[in-house]
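Students often ask why we bother encoding 3D structure as a string. The short answer is that it lets us treat folding as translation between two languages. Here is a chain of 302 residues written in the first language.
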Amino acid sequence: MEPVTPQVAVTGVGLVCALGDDPAAVAARLAAGDTAVGPLGLPGLPDAVGARVPGPSPKELRRWLVRRKDAKLLPRAAELVLPAAGRALGDWPGDREQLGLFFGVRREPPDTGEADAAMVAACVDGRLSPALLAGPGRDLYPPLLPLKTLPNMVLAHVSINLGVMGTGDTCAGGPAAGLTALRAALWAVVEGRCPAALVGAADSHVDGGSVRDRARLRQPGPAGEAAIVLRIEPLGAPGALFHLADLGAGLDAPGDPTRWAHHAGLGDCGVADGLLALALGGPGPVVARDDDGTRAGIARTP
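And here it is in the second language, the structure alphabet:
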């Protein structure tokens, strides 16, 4: 007997990227060769280019926050993903306490400069002093910064602010992390562990620290940032936009890239690139492989 390929229906899409938030319009602009890549204007990095999302505005963020003051706790990936998750959820009529929640994020979310004063105070002649780090460096370190740099905080902020409390997981890694989260969500829906799920990926590489890391690691091309969230439901769900089928792990597809070939007009959006390809592209497989060998593949069908 041939194995059954598990499939789900995509019934909602939320997008935040440098070319807009309407998937059809962004896909058309990319097909026409439009680009959001330009100078990033980073201090000390005058030649840095990338595709930065214009917003979201404080007003847009407040729309999705339970408490306005929590905006100061949001890492950049969470700022991007909250509007995307809210749009993907839409007017879904089910019980949010049963709705699954799965996200792909990078291994180490960046500190966007908030700890710079602490690091400067802890250095002598360009070398870090543990004694100074434990003294004046510690006094200058922002107490809430660890809450911004934990990988699981993207999922936590969506759960808290949208009231989503079903089964879920955060997949932290490289280019395959978003697709790995999608595979986990797909199986959770197919196996009936949740009636539906929000699954997404968010990443940002346009801050100074990330740009320097990209240069140090010799990563090609301009940096980018984006958030993409899909609402998936069992086959036959009303309002399906398209369908997804799991291709499995441990794939050995010809031409399988070591790093994801991102959309040039959006820059390198890291873990979000695989889901962006599914949301903005046509039918066909999307396969990614991380540096540690982790692979994931999903096929989009009409």
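Translate back mentally: The chain has a mean pLDDT of 88. Keep this in mind for the problem set.
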